[in-house]
């Protein structure tokens, strides 16, 4: 039995889960992997904070870099978050010959390339399964289970906070504000929910997924991000009437020219698609490979135990690599890829809701603009509303270039028969 000394930076929800589960699953881990873990040191911000965790025998310190410099420690687990001190800790640990496990997607999205290069030159593993979709082993699936595949597309519900809020609105008709408040009350959403609801957390995860799928790190400024805060309740009702539901999707897709698109967008998905039934704070990812076809991964994307499950699997992977096992390259480059398709040049079908003057000729004027931009309309729907000058008009378009669609919408919004701004949401049919 090989025993590995571990230092952990951060003892919040995830850190505590790791300590508890490393203890409770010790026999299982030992019999499956031949490894045992001795958590010797934990760095915390506030050592005086009372915690529901027995830390007897563990040295509690306040400077995480002390872990990186401790010659006894072989595996450093970074669970602090942030991109400043966390980056220093990861870099210094790798330079000092330690294996590193991190759950920090923001750090990876910002400096993944640099950190993996450092890990490669240090010949030490850098593992980050817990950075995406918590307990779902999606990175191992992409790297190992799907190694024989070129990834054609990946669609992920990868932010539990947003999925909880969207599910609440769709199921109960509650307002966005009330659904967010409920998510905060239940501990799914932070007091400042910006990172989640504006899509940045999903963007970080999308970048990590793209790195695994396509072998290069897409710069954050090339990933177009739209969150869920501007969706209106009526769009959920119209989505339902039309046979869809709205999900926040991280989407990556490869194209025949080798370019990769990556974005985070609220998206209409057919209610018949499996992702549509992923409710509450759950995460799920649908991955299409050229050999395997469609695959699906589902589970909890956050929380103490699910995230600890991923961290501990990385600790085992790190331990096996340290003891001379074969490690698959986490993010192998592939000559087919390495360029990003600008968002403007991606294509989608679109849902559009307009407020229009209720008079003959209005639809003709609007459809003429779509036609001028080479966009077909697949469906038009005018809900019965109280009679008035302006009424809602709902259109579903055929697949069109984002640039053409945005051009059409800008022109339509200037038509005298149209009032205010259009509501526009991408529609994903998951066709092959
Ligand atoms: N805040 C994230 C979510 C979990 O709501 O899914 C951690 O990435």
Q: If helices are DSSP runs of H or I spanning 4 or more residues, what is the number of helices? A: 14
Q: Which structural class best describes the helix and strand composition?
A: alpha/beta
How confident is the prediction overall: mean pLDDT? 95
Percent range for β-strand residues: 25-35%
Question: How far is the first residue's CA from the last residue's CA?
Answer: 48 Å
Please tell me what the overall shape is. Answer: elongated
Spans of at least 5 consecutive residues whose pLDDT stays below 50 are none
Count the E strands: 18
Bound small-molecule species: L-homoserine
What is the secondary structure topology, with strand pairs?
Layout: E1 2-9, H1 13-24, H2 26-33, E2 35-43, E3 59-61, H3 65-69, E4 75-78, H4 85-95, E5 99-102, H5 105-122, E6 126-127, H6 138-145, E7 151-157, H7 160-172, H8 176-185, H9 194-197, H10 200-214, E8 224-225, H11 233-241, E9 244-254, E10 259-270, E11 282-289, E12 293-300, H12 304-322, E13 339-340, E14 347-357, H13 362-372, E15 377-381, E16 390-397, E17 400-401, H14 402-413, E18 418-427
Parallel strand pairs: 1-2, 1-4, 2-3, 4-5, 5-6, 8-10, 10-13, 10-18
Antiparallel strand pairs: 7-9, 7-11, 9-10, 11-12, 14-16, 14-17, 14-18, 15-16
Helix pairs in contact: 1-12, 4-5, 5-10, 7-8, 13-14
Bound molecules: L-homoserine.
